[in-house]
Write a structure and sequence with these properties.
Radius of gyration: 16 Å
Structural class: alpha+beta
Strand order of the largest sheet: 1-2-3-4
Order of helices and strands: EEEEH
Shape: elongated
Helix content: 25-40%
Strand content: 35-45%
Distance between the termini: 34 Å
Number of strands: 4
Number of helices: 1
Length: about 100
């Protein structure tokens, strides 16, 4: 499930913050909830900086090995690949606009 926490926009910037919980995927089974944030700022007429961050809170009672596995298998590998692909997709879409 997702819930929007903040959705703000001004002439040169935007901020979108959301919380996600009740994950069903195997990769995220140990996640209690996550907070994502996408911030964009127009740097010039043809330049925008986008910052996308996630903060994960793991379920209580997890051992060191489970936490380390989540970090190595998801945070350090799968998540960066997925985030880069989504940012590239958004960039391609934006560049195709008239």
């Amino acid at each position: 499930m997702e819930e929007v926490l903040v959705a703000e926009a001004s002439v040169n910037s935007r901020l979108f913050r959301y919380v996600v919980w009740n994950y069903t995927s195997e990769k995220k089974r140990d996640v209690e909830y996550a907070i994502g944030e996408i911030a964009s700022a127009q740097l010039g007429e043809d330049s925008t900086r986008v910052t996308w961050t996630y903060r994960y809170v793991l379920k209580s009672g997890l051992g060191v090995a489970q936490r380390q596995s989540f970090e190595e298998d998801f945070l350090d590998t799968a998540l960066p690949i997925w985030m880069r692909s989504q940012l590239e997709r958004a960039r391609s879409f934006a560049e195709a606009l008239p």
